[in-house]
Amino acid sequence: MLSSLRFTPADVPDQAGRTAIVTGASSGLGELLAEHLAAAGALVIMAVRSPEKGERVRDEILLRNPGAQLEVAELDVADFDSIRRFVAALGERRVDLLANNAGIGNIERRLTAQGHETQVATNHLGPALLALSLVPNLALGRDPRIVTTGSNIYTRLPVRFDLTDLDSERRYSPSAVYARTKTMHMTWAVEHQRRLAAAGSMVSSFVAHPGMVTTPMNTGLAKRRDRILAAGLGKVWGARDPEQGVRPLLYAATSPDASPDVFYGPDGPKGDALVESAAFRSPVKDLSIAARIWNATGEIIGEPATL
User: Fold this and answer.
1) Active-site option among 154, 178, 251, 264
2) What is the mean pLDDT of each run of 10 residues along the chain (307 residues)?
3) Could you confirm whether 251 is annotated as catalytic?
4) Does residue 241 lie within any of the structural domains?
5) Residue at 84 is within a domain
6) Of the residues 16, 123, 160, 275, which has the maximum number of CB atoms within 10 A of its CB?
7) Domain harbouring 250, CATH code
């Protein structure tokens, strides 16, 4: 069952006193999410691969929002060592929101510092390690939430998992790996919510998606035929301005009425301000697949002793 509601950045509740971490905050949806949270009063930690770029973006946000509280911290979510340094630097600092937003797509196959395929590391393994590592910090927060930037591509295309080949050594397709890794992490995030709830944790794991938006990731595809495909799909699906795409993420991150048990996304034509909630579909809702992904992920990232 679907339901829709009107929600814009003006509807974001007062975020004063809250600390939010936004990954990928130096461009696209991450930049907008960081700006809107800061404008509502949150202290936002902009977790970015390039601190220099992050500083430039922070200064631009401050020009538009004098008095906003923004910190820049180095974090490459594809690099496990970078994640561990970031978490160690936070120490026991309280965190109210982790926006696991950073992601990449449609790139040629390459490996990370730990030898993992870059899309699976950036879109799934790294965000999983970060979320698990920050549960103790989030447990100190007020209405603590993890919000995953997902994709509804799995509702339109068949997605299959081969957990024996997470690094795509046997076969690699940029677009197929993007769909698989995004769906994999959404399935993991929904399973994380089940486990958090079963343990009685105050931390919640949400998933929201922006729809097809005109962000740098969608304009930097690896092959000409992928660019043509993306342009065509954008026309068919109604590519949105990022300002429309960020609204479901903001709703999941801030609304007291948001639920971790549904999938939030944009509704209506391009430019509409409605946020739609929908039930998760298979494979994201499949308990058996979720358990396998959870276990396989834990074996790779050295699962921290937290939920």
Assistant:
1) 178
2) 84 98 97 98 98 98 97 98 98 98 94 96 98 97 98 86 91 93 97 97 97 60 43 50 93 97 85 86 95 95 74
3) no
4) yes
5) yes
6) 123
7) 3.40.50.720
